[in-house]
Amino acid sequence: MSHHPEVTAFYDKRTFSVQYVVSDPATRLCAVIDPVLDFDEKSGATSTENADRILEFIEAQGLTPVCILDTHPHADHFSAASYLRARTGAPIGIGEKVCEVQKLWNGFYNQPEAPEDGRQWDRLFADGEEFFIGEIPVRVMLSPGHTLASVTYVAGDAAFIHDTLFMPDSGTARADFPGGSARALWASIQRILALPDDTRLFTGHDYQPGGRELRYESSVAEQRATNSHIAKCLTEADFIALREARDATLPMPKLILHALQVNTNAGRLPEPEENGRRYLKIPLDLLQAPWG
């Protein structure tokens, strides 16, 4: 039982994001993975509705959080990691390559004073590092490609892969963000598909193609056999060609410039200025527009 965590998903319709509470049924200890801090780009309003829903569930189930984890610095939503840390006291963690993402994006935002050593998190995980959620062993797998800092958390028989693989009918993650790489993504996918066939894979987004019902769980065997990108690509070169051609047609996520300045700071919003208000900084002409 200690190698079969209970997994509860929380879906955010605004960003198509799936957040997870991963718990050990024996000890009632849990982790929260990829929590969302709500942000409305039209009004600039922020909210903790998603994170509070997770907190209510944890309390109702009698769970005790031992860590709050992000799989990578998200480009499509703000992370609620620091908010949940403040509410629960649980440490926050992310892959150690986040420091490289900080250096890249601090340059884009012209923030030379911003820390680039990951000090905003309590834990920076190296590839292969292990820890426990109660009695459940968790292994960290570096999974770059979508971003420089992406990691997979393998918790017992469950792996949290976020944007590396979507559900089989949606294929794989884009790899054209600054620091992304289709070649690195292919290698990361191969590591995930080398896990046991019955490993449960939990993705971080579901866009419900064709209007189908929400799905976020698959298996290694299912992905290997039916993923719409993997099944048709017999070689690395095939995959890179498919992925790069697809990426060339995609617009940038609408929140990427908003989110990265928050998520490279562990989900902390900018400090209030002298008038008491917080402000986001948007670099102009950094990313290619759809008409470019």
Could you walk me through the main structural features you see in this protein, from its secondary elements to its overall organization?
- Helix content is 24%, strand content 24%.
- The chain contains seven helices and 15 strands.
- The chain has helices at residues 49-60, 81-88, 98-108, 182-193, 220-226, 236-247, 256-263; strands spanning 6-12, 17-23, 29-33, 36-40, 45-47, 64-69, 78-79, 92-95, 123-125, 130-133, 136-142, 151-155, 158-162, 200-203, 217-219.
- Strands 1-2-3-6-8-9 form a six-stranded mixed beta sheet, covered by helices on one side. A six-stranded mixed beta sheet has the order 10-11-12-13-14-15. Strands 5-4-7 form a three-stranded antiparallel beta sheet.
- Helix 4 packs across helix 6 (236-247).
Any key phrases for this structure?
single chain; 292 residues; alpha/beta; Metallo-beta-lactamase, Chain A; 6-stranded mixed sheet
